[in-house]
Amino acid sequence: MAFESYISLAVYFIAMLGIGVFAYRQSTSDISGYILGGRQVSPHVTALSAGASDMSGWMLMGLPGAMYISGFDAVYIAIGLLAGALLNYIFVAPKLRVYTEVADDSLTVPEFFAKRFNSPKSSLRIVSATIIVLFFTLYTSAGLVAGGKLFESAFSLDYQVGLFITLGVVVSYTLLGGFLAVSLTDFVQGCIMFLALVLVPVVAFSQFDSASQMTSAAYESVPNFSDSLEALTLVGLLSSLGWGLGYFGQPHIIVRFMAIRSVKAISTARTIGMSWMTVTIIGSLGTGLVGVAYANQFGLRVDDPETIFIIFSQILFHPYISGFLMAAILAAIMSTISSQLLVSASSLTEDIYRVITKKEVSDKQTVTIGRYGVAGVALVALILALDSSNTILSLVSNAWAGFGAAFGPLVLFCLYKKDLTAKAALAGMISGAVTVLFWIYAPILEDGQALSSVIYEIIPGFAISAITLWSVTRWGENPSPNVEATFEQAGQELANQQS
Asked: pLDDT tier at 415 (50, 70, 90 boundaries)?
């Protein structure tokens, strides 16, 4: 790439580090500030932070690639994601914001699970925290692989060098500023992603004389919408729409709801977040559709469909703009990595270290331990990412399903079912995670394939987890009066804040 592109990237890196220093001076004096930004995050930052940490490089590389290969089949995944995100804002965000504060100011998702049942040092907390650390370490390594491959393909740098650059910048601002730094950088990165996903498909489309010319060229390789709809099966539709179920259980997304400054601010965040998500998903799908049309019309060689955004960035724009667009991909990757690192470190510190050890530590010491946790998780993820042959898409989809099935039904039951018991919560979480793993890895079909080749694993995992939660609660012991009183208090506080 041209020298001007490197200048654009350098400016981006410096800006991210500057935000980390600013956040370090603003919010890291206590553990609540480090983990949740003191519960004073604005709705604008909440919305774009949730969106940017959610979508990752999948938005700029994976979804355009899926549209490039399969055409309008990718649209159903987008519809499922939009529906899931909207329902998450409506049914989870307000109650979770209030309930986590009422439940003895819970700072992490596992801590909320435990304090929801008036048992802050229960096995439920340790098991859920362990699931988070393990899944997010793998999730983070997948993001690092994407960053390494981006530097390798776009900048002709060594893969390992790309890993260290990506991780170095992310760890620096996460280590310094904690949740506020992650949220502010996610806000900036979300703005960059928004501009990039509007700019690239529009400029690429302008190379055609008309919309009919573009669609005719695209339909040489992919089926049109009518043909795609006729070929759609019920199982295929459920698998695509099922991605939306994952939102209820993604710790790096729902923790944003815990940190927003008030319940009333959630409606503003929802409007901003859903508008951002709608435009960026349309831009992502548009990049893939225009990409296949451009390749057919102008004889463009595309060896890897997931790099169509990178290819457009290099051939259609001035080097300064190309650098900005490359920064957009890095922004998508880094926003998710930083969120995963912080949530992992928070669980490691608050839900495992503090529960297992008997030592009393100050908030300042806990923040320091949290920073060590960020560095430790990052180091393990880096080791896993050193092998450039690691797959990215399958790992991300599996982790999304794992979190969605293990935590999604549990979050909803915790917020809406007063008589839910701790035993039911533990059983539901484990059954969801085990079902997903079985669906992915058990070669029980005739040709040795796993059940995930038939239907996306989040569907059975979510269903079995929900059934287990309901069944164990129905035939188990009743919750204590204190647990029911806290549930009622959270409901009353929510009503007060909404009025």
From this structure: very high
CA-to-CA separations, 358 to 180, 354, 361, in angstroms, rounded: 29, 7, 9
322-335 exposure pattern, b = at least 16 Cβ within 10 A, e = fewer: bbbbbbbbbbbbbb
Residues in CB range of 14: below 8 A, 6 or more apart: none
Question: Does the global pTM surpass 0.90?
Answer: no
Which of 52, 22, 51, 18 has the alpha carbon at shortest distance from 37? 22
How many whole angstroms separate alpha carbon 82 and alpha carbon 247?
10
Q: In 10 A of CB 3, how many CB atoms? A: 8
Question: Cα separation of 12 and 35, whole Å?
Answer: 24
Dist. CA 313–CA 324, nearest whole Å: 9
b/e sequence 397-423, b meaning 16+ C-beta within 10 Å:
bbbbbbbbbbbbbbbbbbbeeeebbbe
- Select from 262, 366, 342, 345 the least CA-distant residue to 29: 366
Compute CA 392 distance to the chain's CA centroid, rounded to the nearest angstrom: 14
Domains of the chain: 3-394 (1.20.1730.10)
Q: Strand, coil or helix: what is 263?
A: coil
- Residues 151 and 397: beta-carbon distance below 8 Å: no
Smallest CA-to-CA distance from 438 within 492, 386, 401, 467 is with: 401
Residue 477 to residues 206, 218, 419, 424: CA-CA distances in angstroms? 65, 60, 9, 10
Burial of 232 (0-12, 13-18, 19+ CB in 10 A): middle
Q: Which helix (H) or strand (E) holds 350?
A: none
Rounded to whole angstroms, how far apart are CA atoms 271 and 289? 27
SS3 260: strand
Spatial CB neighbours of 184, under 8 Å, sequence gap ≥ 6: 19, 22, 23, 45, 49, 177
For the segment 463-486, what is each residue's pLDDT rounded down to a tens digit? 999 999 999 998 877 777 788 888
- List, for residues 29-75, the tens digit of each pLDDT value: 555 555 566 677 788 888 887 887 777 777 887 788 888 988 888 88
Q: Buried b / exposed e across 71-96, counting CB within 10 Å, b at 16+?
A: bbbbbbbbbbbbebbbebbeebbbbb
Is 214:414 a contact under the CB 8 Å cutoff? Answer: no
To which H or E segment does residue 212 belong?
A: helix 211-218
Mapped onto helix, strand or coil, the DSSP state of residue 170 is helix
pLDDT, one tens digit per residue, over 343-355 is: 787 787 777 777 7
Q: Highest mean pLDDT range out of 184-198, 202-216, 379-393?
A: 202-216
